[in-house]
Amino acid sequence: MPPPTTKQQLLAHQELLDPLLLRAFVAVADSGSFTRAAATTHLTQSTVSQQLKRLEQQLGYQVLSRKGRYAVPTAEGERLLSYARNILSLMAEAGSKPQSRPLVRLGVAEDFAGAALMPVLVRLREQYPNVKLEVQSGLSKPLYQAFQEGKLDVALIKQRQGEQDAWGLWPEHLSWLAASHWQTKLDDSPLPLVTFPVGGLYRNEMAQLLDEAGIQWQQVYSSNSLEGVLCAVAAGLGISLLPSRFIRAHEHQLISGLPTAAAMELALHLAPAAGTELQQLARGIGRYCDALVTT
User: Fold this and answer.
1) What mean pLDDT is predicted for residues 153-178?
2) Which of 9, 12, 33, 120: CA 20 to 30 A from 159?
3) pTM score
4) Beta-sheet pairing, 154-160 with 264-270
């Protein structure tokens, strides 16, 4: 029977290519010795010899040439050797335990969930392409609770100044915003407010400031979305207390005559046992916040 000379002909023998026989063949070809091959495969020398004999019988051609104390692949054996190595490598890979991808769980206050942090996340993925990112956005209080419970690795939230220690802290100045065409009237009628839902930090601050000043108010519009709040204010539905950086020149105006709000804080919380990827993400967010508070 002539030896197969092409890949297709070798594949026709695939039912004969027992991995145990191929392993013995590679061990002998690499070491040049049946004795050394027996040691590396943890078999006896006679077993290795029998496996090579079976392989040659099944293939129908000689794969090794015995030259004195050494064994070297024949021309046909050299051709088989590359396939044998690939088969054994693929089998080892298939049988290995899958490596889990590093998971980075990031929680951010709603106004950072869109385009704001995308450059930071893109840079992290470029540096650590195997990292899986999981981003959650929402109100700051639930996000901080999730961080405390170990459900988040990094959290960028809003808080009152000095409320919690954090990996990084930046001031967040607040202003009263109204539509550009708004006519401020601080009379006996309730002040219409555009707010986030109950539990939102800015909503609570608005209510507390106005109540302490004895100013009547009523909630006329509520939204989970920062964009929804900004659009409602721009449309003239009411006013709101928001970070000063959110003002849009042709849509909003800053209004005076209302109680001054103390600055809040941007707080970046980082898990205590943060690995390299988390530390890199924290530094990237930190640089973003540095730029944010200086503009």
Assistant:
1) 91
2) 120
3) 0.61
4) antiparallel
